[in-house]
Amino acid sequence: MNIDGTHFRTIWLSDDGWSVEVIDQTLLPHVFEVMRLTTVAEAAAAISTMVVRGAPLIGATAAYGMALAMHEDASDQALAAAYTALLATRPTAVNLRWALDDMQTRLGAVAEDRRRELAYARAAEICDDDVATCQGIGRHGGALIKDAYDRKGGKDVVNVLTHCNAGWLATVDWGTALAPIYTAHNAGIPVHVWVDETRPRNQGAALTAYELGSHGVPHTVIVDNAGGHLMQHGMVDMCITGTDRTTAHGDVCNKIGTYLKALAAHDNNVPFYVGLPHSTIDWTLGDGVAGIPIEQRDGTEVSHISGVTDGGAGATVRLVPKGAAVGNYAFDVTPARLVTGLITERGVCPASRDGLVGLYPEQAASAA
Ligand code: MRU
């Protein structure tokens, strides 16, 4: 995607040919700054502090983290230590484990003197694959938005509600939930996006609004509690969110609050779609509520809020009384029965085992 006319991915190999550069997402939307990662420890810290975030980008950064480790030391011990350090960064997005397993299997199968080159090549492939995958999600999801537009007589704007940030900043480029929106917008279909602010880290207010604004997509930021009201009043034609882990039965785990939006959508007959790449499917799990580890983050993300003053100075202020107990559950699980369809790079399918197996027969077979 373009920032001030320059095309950026969210992660790329530096001009020196070995270090890795990422956009520091903790500073957006107020400051656009690139951070250089030179060690596996820096890559791990970038993931855990959410300099980079979003399931596909977490996977891509982990892949490059393995490459940085191999640049330093390509021994078996270094390979195992890098895997362990990166896997410990965030528990919910399964793309992390997917990318690390892929890298470890390939690197472990070759001699030490070949690992460095192979690691960089495979990390680059994972990034390119993510871009192509997200474009595919955009094509299939864009067709759903076009259908909604046609159903409205081909003249009214299509209103899509999204939660958190599942746009290009959450992937290598294009996004998952937002790729259909970009595709439809680029094709001239009038789309307007209701952007949930997404407390406590405000990925919607900060990142989704920044992305959509940079691309010229009309949007309105709303508080997290507004979606149900808008749906009751016919102001939402469809919801599209991302997912950090999709079980083999079609349960989806996404940013906290997604489940409540799915419930409201169900109660109001609003279609609820989820965009996802193949790397987000966890074939080892069926019941997402019981099986998916839910990240709990530091309570200061709830007790405090950060932004800039009108003068442009950064500021963090306390919201809750000193000493009040706070809980910071970062994700929740939306059961498959509340999901209208899964939008993948291979097409749209029901949120069910049959639906996923129909699109990914070879993955289902190799997981069995
Ligand atoms: O905590 P985050 O910002 O990493 O959470 C991101 C999300 O919940 C996204 O919706 C999800 O990763 C899908 S990304 C395409």
Written description of the protein model:
By secondary structure, the protein is α/β, with parallel strands linked by helices. The protein has two domains: 2-128, Up-down Bundle (Four Helix Bundle (Hemerythrin (Met), subunit A)), CATH 1.20.120; 154-363, Rossmann fold. 42% of the residues lie in helices and 18% in strands. It has a seven-stranded mixed sheet with strand order 8-7-6-9-12-17-18, sandwiched between helices. A four-stranded mixed sheet has the order 13-10-11-16, covered by helices on one side. A three-stranded antiparallel sheet has the order 3-4-5, covered by helices on one side. Helix 2 (55-72) packs parallel to helix 4 and helix 3 (76-87) runs antiparallel to helix 4. The relative contact order is 0.12. The chain binds 5-S-methyl-1-O-phosphono-5-thio-D-ribulose (MRU). 5-S-methyl-1-O-phosphono-5-thio-D-ribulose is lined by residues 53-56, 93, 164, 166, 170-171, 175-176, 203, 242-244, 254-255, 330.
Number of DSSP E strands: 18
Look up the CATH topology of the largest domain.
Rossmann fold
| Total helical elements | 13
**Percentage of residues in strands:** 15-25%
CATH architecture of the largest domain: 3-Layer(aba) Sandwich
Structural domains: how many: 2
